[in-house]
């Protein structure tokens, strides 16, 4: 049975909606109450973003295409406790740092409750990263095409279309009408279950100039002819999104238009809706999609017209989005990441200078209890030579003469009369300072053999593994080191 909207519910929608569709300025800066107020655009350091994402861990990837994709999105937690989405471009993207920064700042000036807003960027060396609000409740593609417990309700589909149209109108009013590759993966759901348009599509895709990565069957015809994206191209893509919402499938516009021409709407509509909509509403959405998909760009409606058309067919306007979406309110907050210590953060950053200071400050206290410790009642010439090697190595280590330190510590280990995990740890760091990551890993593992629950051994393993490009293994070593350090501190309390 179709659900009809009363005059009362329409009035409630129009008065309670933040903002009204005709006053998008109210969306800026998170609304007047400041609850969702966002700070101004920030240029983040690479160290901050590495810490936030646990060294761009594979566990933190949230983009649909995984770590093999050219541009990967990670979730991250800033020091202020705010979750963010960090998009990391591949090395060949955005070779012009100034162009990247200017483009990011322009998009970062936008602030709307209909967008997953851009909070900042990072532009260090060859690194190009964008930082946006994190949306914890998945994408439209997930809820529409790959749902688990229930299909998306008709009222929610209408709300998605309406909020997306509002986002497009807001961007147009701010001079950013161009959106690249609008699709169901670009619509994200916030903690309240409200749909938002990802800000990443407002950025140019990079120097390759490609604005559409989807199947050519979904590409605007004028883009096929000219390779240029216009505001009318974005409206065409909006039409394909309406088809997605109608059908619950990603069907090519040409096929959908054929069904529409022969008035076979039953084949177009999502069977999972089971009469959850009125024929009038379905017909209106089909009509709007058809207008958006006109071959001639000038015959398509603009964003303001889309907003005006969609507001009249909204349903269940008093029901919160999280209820319509079928999710528990606030339940999708990501799990807390591993809280790293000072040593852990230095490892994550691969800050070898900081690690050198830590090892120097710690000295040999962690050698206590090790068999053949550095105190003897009987001395031999060999033992004295071994101790001399240690002292010379320590002097070189303090002076940051890492090549000499490696030679002296090697003589100590080769002497075979004493065992010291600290010597292996120090030589490991010397190897890292000398770009000998494989040798460093061997020493860190040897330190672990001597002292199986020594956090420093695992910390150094993580740095060596990071240097060798073995990020997953490095993350595991970092986690183990953090757990062991916490365990050690707890046992000493």
Give the structure's gist in a few sentences.
The protein has 493 residues and is of the alpha/beta class. 47% of the residues lie in helices and 8% in strands.
Question: How would you characterize this protein structure?
Answer:
- The structure is a single chain.
- This protein is an alpha/beta fold.
- Helices cover 47% and strands 8% of the residues.
- A five-stranded mixed β-sheet has the order 1-5-6-3-2, with helices on both faces.
- A hairpin with a 5-residue loop joins strand 2 (72-77) and strand 3 (83-88).
- Helix 17 packs parallel to helix 19.
- It is elongated and about 100 Å long.
- Mean pLDDT is 82; it is low at 1-37 and 371-379.
Descriptors:
493 residues, alpha/beta, five-stranded mixed sheet, 47% helix, elongated, disordered N terminus
Give the helices and strands, then pairings.
Layout: H1 7-16, E1 42-43, H2 46-52, E2 72-77, E3 83-88, H3 97-108, E4 115-116, E5 118-124, E6 127-133, H4 140-145, H5 154-173, E7 187-189, E8 195-198, H6 221-226, H7 231-247, H8 253-261, H9 265-268, H10 279-292, H11 303-311, H12 321-325, H13 342-349, H14 352-362, H15 381-398, H16 402-415, H17 421-433, H18 437-450, H19 455-467, H20 471-492
Parallel strand pairs: 1-5, 4-8
Antiparallel strand pairs: 2-3, 3-6, 5-6, 7-8
Helix pairs in contact: 5-7, 5-11, 7-10, 13-19, 14-17, 15-16, 16-17, 17-18, 17-19, 18-19, 19-20
């Amino acid at each position: 049975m179709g659900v009809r909207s009363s005059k009362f519910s329409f009035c409630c929608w129009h008065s309670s909606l933040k903002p009204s569709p005709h006053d998008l300025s109210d969306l800026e800066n998170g609304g007047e109450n400041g609850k969702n107020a966002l700070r101004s655009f920030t240029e983040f350091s690479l160290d901050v973003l590495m810490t936030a994402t646990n060294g761009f861990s594979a566990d933190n990837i949230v983009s649909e295409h995984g770590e093999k994709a050219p541009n990967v999105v990670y979730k991250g937690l800033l020091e202020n406790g705010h979750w963010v989405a960090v998009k990391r471009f591949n090395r060949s993207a955005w070779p012009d740092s100034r162009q990247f920064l200017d483009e990011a700042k322009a998009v970062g000036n936008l602030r709307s409750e209909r967008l997953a807003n851009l909070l900042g960027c990072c532009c260090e060396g060859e690194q190009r990263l964008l930082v946006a609000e994190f949306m914890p409740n998945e994408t439209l593609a997930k809820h529409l095409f790959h749902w688990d417990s229930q299909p998306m309700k008709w009222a929610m589909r209408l709300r998605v279309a309406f909020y997306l149209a509002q986002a497009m109108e807001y961007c147009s009013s701010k001079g950013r009408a161009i959106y690249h590759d609008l699709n169901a993966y670009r619509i994200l759901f916030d903690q309240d279950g409200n749909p938002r348009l990802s800000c990443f599509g407002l950025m140019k895709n990079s120097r390759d100039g490609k604005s559409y990565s989807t199947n050519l069957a979904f590409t605007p015809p004028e883009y096929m002819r000219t390779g240029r994206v216009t505001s009318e191209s974005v409206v065409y893509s909006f039409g394909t999104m309406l088809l997605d919402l109608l059908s619950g499938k990603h069907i090519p516009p040409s096929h959908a238009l054929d069904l529409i021409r022969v008035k076979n709407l039953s084949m177009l509509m999502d069977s999972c809706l089971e009469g959850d909509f009125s024929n009038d509403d379905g017909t209106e959405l089909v009509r709007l999609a058809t207008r958006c998909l006109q071959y001639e760009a000038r015959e398509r409606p603009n964003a303001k017209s889309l907003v005006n058309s969609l507001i009249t067919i909204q349903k269940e306007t008093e029901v919160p989005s999280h209820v319509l979406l079928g999710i528990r309110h606030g339940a999708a907050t990501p799990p807390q990441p591993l809280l790293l210590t000072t040593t852990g953060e230095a490892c994550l950053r691969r800050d070898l200078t900081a690690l050198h200071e830590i090892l120097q400050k710690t000295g040999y206290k962690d050698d206590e209890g090790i068999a053949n410790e550095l105190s003897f009642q009987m001395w031999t010439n060999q033992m004295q030579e071994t101790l001399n090697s240690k002292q010379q190595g320590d002097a070189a280590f303090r002076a940051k003469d890492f090549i000499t330190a490696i030679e002296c510590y090697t003589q100590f280990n080769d002497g075979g009369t004493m065992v010291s995990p600290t010597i292996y740890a120090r030589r490991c760091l010397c190897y890292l300072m000398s770009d000998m990551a494989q040798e460093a890993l061997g020493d860190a593992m040897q330190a672990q053999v001597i002292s199986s629950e020594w956090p420093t051994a695992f910390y150094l393993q993580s740095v060596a593994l990071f240097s060798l490009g073995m990020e997953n293994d490095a993350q595991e070593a970092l986690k183990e080191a953090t757990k062991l350090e916490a365990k050690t501190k707890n046992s000493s309390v």
